[in-house]
Known about the structure:
By secondary structure, the chain is α+β, with helices and mostly antiparallel strands. Helices cover about 25% and strands about 30% of the residues. The chain has 2 domains: about 5-235, P-loop containing nucleotide triphosphate hydrolases (Rossmann fold), CATH 3.40.50.300; about 240-375, CATH 2.40.50.140. Helix 2 (about 95-105) crosses helix 3.
Amino acid sequence: MARVELRHVWKIYNGNVEAVKDTTWKCEDGEFFSILGPSGCGKSSSLRMIAGLEHITRGEILFDGQVINSLPPAERNVAMVFENWALYTNLSVYENIAFPLRVRKMPEDVIDKKVKEAAAFLSLESILHSGVKRLSGGEMQRVSIGRAIVRNPSVLIMDEPISHLDAALRSKMRDELKTQVEKLGVTTLYITHDQVEAMAMADRIAIMNLGEIQQIGTPLEIYYKPRNDFVAGFIGEPPMNFALCEIKKEGGEWNIKSPSFNFVLNEKMKSLFNGYTGNPKLKIGVRPEDVQVSLDPSVNAFPLEVDFVEPQGDRTIISLKLQGSDLFFAEILGNFRPGINQTVYVMFDQRHINFFDPESGINIFFKEKRNVTGD
Ligand code: ADP
Ligand code: MG
């Protein structure tokens, strides 16, 4: 097992495609570390450089403090599991798992011992001598993990291993994968574009966009303390709502104003803003579950019209008409269904609201020290 570290790593293809830009992060020994971001943001390029499948344009990659830039892939002891699991369909489960050991020309008795150990670990003993064509998705996944772990890799890389499955199977696989990887205790770098997967499985998540790391943190840090509006909008379903507003100090109170809403900050938020001298024009971010909706007016609540209503069983998602926002979601109880165009009274749960600089997108209260590298 190994600690993996990237120091100012760049990947530039063909002299001009900047796929990975100045990336710095560290994954601890045995950690389950997820790289999360939209398609094309540089996730696979990052991990292919770690595996040695791609030349590092600039920067350093270290395993346990040793620079491995010039080490050939075979000497890095990194195993990869890909999206399609890439099993050899004409070979048995046993031979698929044995394959990397045969390539290394290990003695037959050692191969047999290691394959059986991996099979026992992954509960594949009863199908060891079956072909792989008719296996279930879960079994194929376990065979592919078996092949990856049979040679005791220092680092296990999984590149969107379950992205192609349908939603129900994906959720089952997510649980199974996490359990297996936890048992192994191997350093795992897990690529996904699916925030639900990363949130459910990872110890820490590195969020990438356009080749750059946006934030590194635990799922909870990333959810509640997003460093910028990209992270805030990428995590959560329905996504965080944004609206432009202006902050004004009047008579000892901090007022948040926009053409559609107007409210006073509570004591806790006030203490954050006391001494604030930055831009008074801000972008507020509120998650749908923090938008409180009532049919009755109250102090600090503002009237808004309902745009659409989407019942989802245990909860109802509504969108509210807000000037300057196409969609502004509220998540309310399933049995509460206001009518379209009805006026409702809205308050924000101030414990979780965030304010972003409208130009840079940076969360104005984000403590840079604690992040981006997660140290
Ligand atoms: P992700 O895994 O996040 O989807 P990739 O790392 O595969 O992203 O790709 C990042 C960017 O680099 C994309 O714009 C992609 O088109 C580009 N890219 C990836 N591989 C190559 C390559 N071999 N040659 C040129 N451009 C590439
Ligand atoms: Mg990829």
